[in-house]
Amino acid sequence: MVKLHTNHGVITLELDAEKAPQTVANFLAYVEAGHYNNTIFHRVIGNFMIQGGGFEPGMKQKDTQAPIKNESANGLSNTVGTVAMARTSDPHSASSQFFINVGNNLFLDKDQAQDGWGYCVFGRVSEGMDVVEKIKAVRTGRSGFHQDVPVEDVLIERAEVA
User: pTM for the whole thing?
Assistant: First the structure.
């Protein structure tokens, strides 16, 4: 489990290393390296997801390790409260950014994805959905070429293995 201590409260993530071993190992390596400390949820879409893990306050992008293989064929689904890896249009481009689904986003699952890959779910929120609910409701705007950026920082103060 990983606890994300945010300025809105604590979110506890239960990770599924059995179904997404490389993804969980990658996420835990970032947690243990302190990568997520002082990062923000930089993309919040209230009926879709909240995304973080790649930017510091001020939308300063953080360096990442090499991308990982997409493990989206693991049978886990992008339903409310699950956590998945964010990526670019390259299916194997996930590194540090992740998102928590706040809607049932089955179109992101491998079997329904337009690109045939989808987004790898690797865990779920086991405590703190009330915090996720608070975050999904924050006011958003634009920051440079980024959309859906919280007007006031939603900060991950620290992440720790629990």
Answer: 0.98
> Residue 98 belongs to what H/E stretch?
strand 98-101
Q: Quote the tokens at residue 57.
A: 């306050």
Question: By CB neighbour count within 10 A (0-12 exposed, 13-18 middle, 19+ buried), where does 67 fall?
Answer: middle
Alpha-carbon distance 162 to 13, whole Å? 9
Question: What is the per-residue DSSP string for 29-89?
Answer: HHHHTTTTTTEEEEEEETTTEEEESSEETTTEEPP--------GGGS----TTEEEE---S
Q: Which helix (H) or strand (E) holds 85?
A: strand 82-85
Per-position pLDDT tens, the chain of length 162: 999 999 999 999 999 999 999 999 999 999 999 999 999 999 999 999 999 999 999 999 999 999 999 999 999 999 999 999 999 999 999 999 999 999 999 999 999 999 999 999 999 999 999 999 999 999 999 999 999 999 999 999 999 999
- Note whether 2 and 31 are within 8 A (CB): yes
- What residues have CB less than 8 Å from 58, skipping those under 6 apart? none
